[in-house]
Amino acid sequence: MDPKLLWQRADTGSRISARFFTRRLSLRVLALLSICVVLYNVVYSTELRRRLEMNVQAPRHTGQPQHGTDTAELEDGPPSATCFGAELGHNGTEKATLVMLVRNSELHGALSSIRMVEDRFNRRFHYPWTFLNDKPFTDDFIKYTSGLASGPVEYAVIPEDDWSIPDHVNTTIMRAEMLRMAKQEIIYGGSLSYRHMCRFNSGFFYNQEVMRKYDWYWRVEPGIELYCDINYDPFTFMRENKKIYGFVISMYEFRDTITTLWDRTRQFLNHGDYNLCHFWSNFEIASLEFYRSEAYSRYFEFLDSTGGFFYERWGDAPVHSIGVGLFAPKDSIHHFADFGYSHPPCARCPQDDESHTSGRCVCSRNKNFDSDSYSCLPRWWKVNRGTGWI
């Protein structure tokens, strides 16, 4: 036999054996990886289901259909979110909630806002979320929003009396005024739902059953942006510094929407003139006890009795601002100048270097409503130097 042929056969066999061994090893590795993936998915799915169930389960209150986790322990201690992501930071200890008035159709904007607030702030503190709606929340809304929250979540339907036209309002006059305002293209002048929203935020949100356990709230609206990390607890800051109301943007109100608001206010409590400035209330961090006070409650009840929320289009921003200006000490109002915030069409960005060089904020300092001619912040700075606000 030719030795060369034997050599060739031996080499061919070894190559076949090596290929066979490599193929078997690859199959074993793939099988092992598949088993790991399956185990990971089982464990992850179980943990995710557990967290969603903890977020969605909550007691139902009479007259307030709800879904969510039980936050009753907030009456006596810190929020019940301590089991979520404690390694990311300490948990908030104030009786406070992030609150959003939202419709089911605004789910995408709500998710965007929740993600923004969680990433910039709440992943460190795990404060509860409270969602309010004049209609029952859909299963999808509950499923997706609760999946993003790092703390307890509650969903409540607003009682009909808090979202309806009072008996003392003449609907014929109201609808005629709405038509007139719509023809004149006054912003939201023809919207009834906007009037309900403004009246609710002016005088009812803080007394909802689901809100009564809290002392503080941070109002969050769908579609907002936060440009900066918030590395401290603003609720604790407010309490420790005896603050009542916190804002980020201040501007002038549209005169045609509040034609008689100040006249009515002077009927209630004679007090100078009003310059139309207000704190933009789509962002507020404030004391719920202030709104529940006798002074503010009587003021809202008087305004509501005049029908101005429906005959005109009084906004909750000027009502809140006038109320705070009348009944809260000047030094109890705080401007969160370290917050970068956007609610279309307005935005503000912190102007100091450290906020940007540290990476805490990502926003353009050139796009800053504080310096806009329509901003009331220059008037606020004068307030801090001792002159009047309203």
UniProtKB/TrEMBL annotation:
Disordered: region residues: 57-77
Catalytic residues identified in the record: 284
Regions that span the bilayer: 25-44
Keyword Magnesium annotated: no
Cellular component terms (Gene Ontology): Golgi apparatus; membrane
Keywords noted in UniProt: Glycosyltransferase, Membrane, Transferase, Transmembrane, Transmembrane helix
InterPro entries membership: Glyco_trans_15, Nucleotide-diphossugar_trans
GO annotation terms (biological process): cell wall mannoprotein biosynthetic process; protein N-linked glycosylation; protein O-linked glycosylation
GO molecular function: alpha-1,2-mannosyltransferase activity
PANTHER family: ALPHA-1,2 MANNOSYLTRANSFERASE KTR1
Protein name (database record): (Perigord truffle) hypothetical protein
Organism: Tuber melanosporum (strain Mel28) (Perigord black truffle)
